TrEMBL record:
Superkingdom field: Bacteria
EC number per UniProt: 3.2.1.8
Keywords from the named record: Carbohydrate metabolism, Glycosidase, Hydrolase, Polysaccharide degradation, Signal, Xylan degradation
Phylogenetic classification of the source organism: Bacteria, Bacillati, Actinomycetota, Actinomycetes, Micromonosporales
Domain GH10, residue spans: 1-297
Protein's UniProt name: Beta-xylanase
Family to which this protein belongs: Belongs to the glycosyl hydrolase 10 (cellulase F) family.
Positions annotated as active site in the UniProt record: 232
Single GO molecular function: polysaccharide binding
Residues of the full protein shown: 34 to 331 of 456
The keyword Protease is assigned to this record: no
Originating organism: Micromonospora taraxaci
């Protein structure tokens, strides 16, 4: 293929980008998006603060706009994210205990129901594990409602949209380490007890090197019986950027259950990482060396 999306599709996979719907009226941006990508995710517009700004008052304007754009252009949609300790609306930040538990499950149910049938895969829970050597959960008001909050969220999401793949998504999980092993143990436990989980997302916000066991780590999760996806790929600029992009793409292609790759934005100047210039297109919309390496690896 001559584009990322078409090349990935030839291998039964997708190649996606995170989108800010406010940029869809910028022609350089949308021209690249529509030409190169066959999957999208909302960079912010399906998060809790955006979709339920006041308790029980739901707002789907941005999310619906992105779904419409995707459907009109033959793109699949990843849903991001039903529950995350960041970008909680203010009203939820102030809650705890059984009131928060009810509110968060209601959020999962309402949002997954609204988008039912339109989402390829949901990040049901985002970033719930701690960094460092503990391998345990991150402290948050969500975690303090009880260790079973993650499985309760997955069960609610399955009931609301049985057709969506349900993913757990996190960062600093790029090799076999304490954090990724903690998540691995949770997924293994969920599979053994019949808690509905279909996929694990590896955000892959990368620096100037790539863990040598990146592919092996994807494979050990796939061997548990879940799909894996690269969900938020971006790579710090520098001598290795193009090489790392190529290596990540090859790793996914080498794992049969790695179903797709999403980059976290279109052009360098769209990236949350600012001066890292972490994406595949420069600010003028030109393809970078990293783009060529990705295309050649698909
Ligand atoms: C980031 C967005 O890119 C920013 O626009 C926003 O201000 C903060 O969130 N991990 C995630 C994403 O799961 O949702 C984050 O997105 C980047 C880190």
């Amino acid at each position: 293929g001559t584009t990322l999306g078409a090349s990935a599709a030839e291998k039964g996979r997708y190649f996606g980008a995170a989108v800010a719907t406010g940029k869809l009226s910028t022609s350089v941006y949308t021209t690249i998006l529509n030409r190169e990508f066959n999957s999208v995710v909302a960079e912010n517009e399906m998060k809790w603060d955006a979709t339920e700004p006041q308790q029980g008052r739901f707002s789907y304007t941005g999310g619906d706009r992105l779904v419409s754009h995707a459907q009109a252009n033959g793109m699949s949609v990843r849903g991001h994210a039903l529950l995350w300790h960041q970008q909680e609306p203010g009203w939820a930040q102030g809650m705890s205990g059984s009131a928060l538990r009810s509110a968060m499950i209601n959020h999962v149910t309402q949002v997954a129901t609204h988008f039912r049938g339109k989402i390829y895969a949901w990040d049901v829970v985002n970033e719930a594990f701690a960094d460092g050597g503990s391998g345990g959960r991150r402290d948050s008001n969500l975690q303090r409602t009880g260790n079973d909050w993650i499985e309760a969220a997955f069960r609610a999401a399955r009931a609301a949209d049985p057709g969506a793949k349900l993913c757990y998504n996190d960062y600093n999980t790029d090799g076999v380490n304490a954090k990724s092993t903690g998540i691995y143990n949770m997924v293994r436990d969920f599979k053994s007890r019949g808690v509905p989980i279909d996929c694990v997302g590896f955000q892959s916000h990368l620096g100037t090197s790539l863990a040598s066991d990146y592919q092996a780590n994807l494979q050990r999760f796939a061997d548990l019986g879940v799909d894996v996806q690269i969900t938020e790929l971006d790579v710090m600029t520098g001598g290795n950027q193009a090489n790392i992009y190529g290596a990540v793409t090859r790793a996914c292609m080498n794992v049969s259950r790695c179903t797709g790759i999403t980059v976290w934005g279109v052009r360098d100047c769209d990236s949350w990482r600012g001066s890292d210039n972490a994406l595949l297109f420069d600010c003028n919309g030109n393809k970078k060396a990293a783009y060529t390496n990705v295309l050649n690896a698909l």
